[in-house]
Amino acid sequence: MNSTPSPAVLVVVGAGPRATGLLERIAANAPELWDGSRQLCIHLVDPHAPGPGRIWRHEQPALLRMNSMAEDVTMFTDESSTVDGPVQPGPSLAEWAAQFSGRGPHHAPYAEPADPEVLAELRTLDGSDFPTRRAQSAYLDWVFRRALAQLPPTVTVEWHPTTATAVTGPPDGPQQVHLADRATALTADLVVLAQGHLGSTPAAEYRDHAAFARRHGRFHLPPEFSADADLSALRPGEHVILRGFGLAFIDLMALLTEGRGGTYRTGADGTLTYLPSGREPVLHVGSRRGVPYHSKTRYRLQGPRPPLPRHFGPEAVDGLLAEGRPLDLRRDVWPLMAKEIGFGHYHELFHAHPERTAFPWPDFVAAYDRLGWYDDEMAALVATAVPDPADRLDFEALDHPLDGLAFPTPDAFQDHLRDHIAQDVTRRENPEFSADLGAFLALLSVYGQLPRLVASGRLTARSVADDLDGWWHGFFSFLASGPPGFRLRQLLALSQAGIVHFLGAGIRIATDETSGTFTATSTTVSGHTTHATALIEAYLPGPSLAHTEDPLLRGLYQEGALAEEVIADPTHTHRSGLLAVSPADGYVIDPSLDSPHPRRIALGAPTNSRAVAAFARPRTNAPAFRQNDAVARALLRALRATEAETATSPVDGRPLRALFTEGAQDEEHVP
């Protein structure tokens, strides 16, 4: 009689950075929580190579870059991480890249990327450089291979390069994960959904614009991931309206200019001049704010790191929750958030640039700590202690830089916005203004404290809709998720060359049936209308379970086996489009059970676990790493407790431990 127990089986749908981070935490926690008396088989299901996944796949234009410096990207826990499992530090992207030029030690398992262009980039990559997404793809591939190498012998991983189409099975029994390319489903004890950022079919507004474009032979692109967008139909010289001035626009700008053969010449003073190829369309860009996202800083702190959190940490959140009443983010929470960000800003200013302050830091912070952000006394304190208005933090001016401004002609506005962009880039590249980096670090700290507040259910439905998912998400991205400075310098050159035109704030898009054109207007240049034969929605698809392109999530939603997050109170109902999960452990809320499904977990972008990005800046106690660790530990405990109820599925995946340890590579694996 065979007494060997059947393997425990975990199926992870998605194999990108989020799944990779989870696997790294499983490997870290396995010595404590997996005793090796039973095999654990982990199946990864993703048509794209594990590690990078779809968004960070190698097969995308080399022009596309990250908006983070190489030294600011890590997939590993560190001394700041408050996790129950073991902290296992690892190299940042910059530290990992240094091994290929001999500037740093080798990191096992060592292997040079197969793409010679990526290898050449890594050999010259500096910590303050903004890497290509292909370089990040190579880093994520290595992180995945390292996680594989650290798993104990009783844990195996198989990759199925296909799409998961459905999950079935009772809450008290094995789950069946159905795959697109095989008749027999994978049988699992537990299933983790980690598909990452997903596309969606166009909503009604975009369908109307698409229908207009078809009627008149025009071009329309709904929200799309830049690397996936087909721009080939845009003709040289064609006028294009782009709604959106964030990172998606920056990517599209690069693809439609350099991507079509244009080049930049650098003058003796460092000014860029764009040399067109003649194949570029003419781009007209506007948005709600009417200005591009703020440039990323390219310097380090000049003073000591601010001790965060200080004014908006766990104790502050506890205090808000203890009030036992509905909360409004702008009224009740934002003043504490603003004070925290201000603390980061002024901590750096007083420590790194004391010559621009009027009295010592201890005196300032003693007064600062006892005042509210919007108190008159706070304004007086800052005005006295910080003589130069350029060194003061004014959120309202930052948030709406074009408010109250109107220009008589489009040309007058072009001049104004070029000056605004040039000043922003100069400031973000000048360490004399390193207080901006102190504010940025505090922004990250604030962002990491919000999930617990949101999970409490105390924010009103209207505040979640308008303030959290609306204003705060946009404001955070505007301040903290902007492009590298060189991209904005390129934007200036394109503006001077007449390739890019600025439309202004609060743009309104309409259609003109008579001329068969899309139109754009803005209060910034009153009375002026721009006509174009193409319209691009230059932002990413929003979350939508009803419209998601993912067949598994769409099917579960239609069956009523998962739920969209709905926040309702007597005054408002907010449907976020996000997948509702249990806040503490990520278990999928199943409406048919009126409770979390005990066999299904979801992590990452499609879920309502807000503020959980897959990778992070070092030493920021990243929320994603905390969640990955908690879920990995819960999974190992649950899998250890399962009975031998899952019959072994036919093995047709790729045994990755053998694949990587033998150094083998196949055509679908990203090097």
From TrEMBL:
The residue range of the signal peptide is none
Q: Which InterPro entries match?
A: HpyO/CreE_NAD-binding (IPR038732), L-asp_N-monooxygenase_NS-form (IPR052189)
- Annotated FAD-dependent urate hydroxylase HpyO/Asp monooxygenase CreE-like FAD/NAD(P)-binding domain ranges read 11-197
Question: Under which name does UniProt file this protein?
Answer: FAD/NAD(P)-binding protein
Q: Which organism is it from?
A: Streptomyces bluensis
